[in-house]
Write a structure and sequence with these properties.
Aminopeptidase; alpha+beta; 2 domains; elongated
């Protein structure tokens, strides 16, 4: 059942970095991607909205990245407050929602939502981290071609060499061939958070703990810079969850990712794009 509007809530656009950051810090492990966008290269494309109660206290926040195809839309805080933001401040025709089940219920009368992709947010810090030794090597811009060759097997797209300059990537080579790699989605040293992602092992080399080696190497370097490292994993991917747990990652919360369309406006022409995005995100969720 959809959540009804609350008359004691009001929403407004917000652009002040410190105001946004102060709210995100109230649950920074949940808000880790938004904290990355706050200072990251996509910050200029982000639109923020905040909901307040009748005392003026901030109770919810939403963020949407502008773009030609459905872009991420993040929701945090009171579900009714998030609904208020999406009803009056942030109103994309279509978006890729990152949220909890409660948030999805709250916006169900504003958006038609595709079936969710269930994710676990897992986190690690210096106290819980358990390194896993292995021959992982730091990757740099000269390795971009090899990295893309590996990733195109599963991610349906390439990455620019700049990701190896801006992020932290490690790989394992077998007879000179890059067969496993892991990297980062987010690093925000100012806010003390980072996100591990783009973990991939060639199908012919799975079952030898290579993904654990590269993830451990990336995590170890990140924890020298920030206090909290997070990652998302499909909730039904038991082997990956077990591998991350052996590195000291623990479940923090459960999330859903799903495409949604505003209840007014056309959508049929977007279906091929939606399907392509769904397939890509299933292989490499944010």
């Amino acid at each position: 059942m959809a959540v009804a509007p609350k008359p004691d809530l009001y929403a407004r656009a917000v652009a002040d970095r410190d105001e946004i950051a102060a709210y995100l810090r109230t649950d920074r492990r949940y808000a880790v991607y938004a904290l990355g966008d706050l200072d990251g290269p996509s910050r200029g494309r982000c639109t923020w909205g905040m909901a307040h109660d009748d005392t003026g206290r901030a109770v919810a926040l939403a963020m949407h990245q502008e773009g030609l195809v459905p872009q991420p839309l993040f929701m945090m805080g009171d579900p009714a407050g998030c609904r208020e933001v999406l009803a009056s401040v942030i109103r994309p025709r279509d978006a890729y929602f990152l949220s909890t089940e409660a948030h999805d219920v709250a916006i169900a009368n504003l958006y038609d939502l595709d079936p969710p992709l269930a994710l676990l947010r897992m986190v690690v810090d210096t106290d819980s981290f358990k390194p896993f030794a292995g021959p992982a090597e730091r990757l740099g811009p000269p390795d971009a071609e090899d990295l893309n060759r590996l990733y195109q097997l599963g991610f349906r797209g390439g990455f620019p060499a700049s990701i190896l300059e801006d992020g932290v990537y490690y790989g394992v080579r077998v007879r000179g061939r890059l067969v496993s790699a892991a990297g980062t989605h987010v690093i925000n040293v100012r806010e003390g958070v980072a996100v591990v992602g783009n973990v991939m092992t060639h199908v012919d080399f799975r079952g030898h703990d290579l993904a654990k080696m590269v993830t451990s190497a990336v995590t170890a370097e990140l924890l020298q810079r920030v206090g909290d490292v997070a990652l998302n994993v499909h909730a039904d991917n038991g082997p990956a969850i077990t591998a991350y747990a052996r590195l000291g990652y623990r479940e923090y919360c459960r999330l859903s990712e799903r495409l949604g369309r505003r209840r007014s406006g056309g959508w049929g022409l977007m279906r091929p794009i939606r399907e392509a995005i769904r397939l890509t995100w299933q292989r490499d969720p944010r």
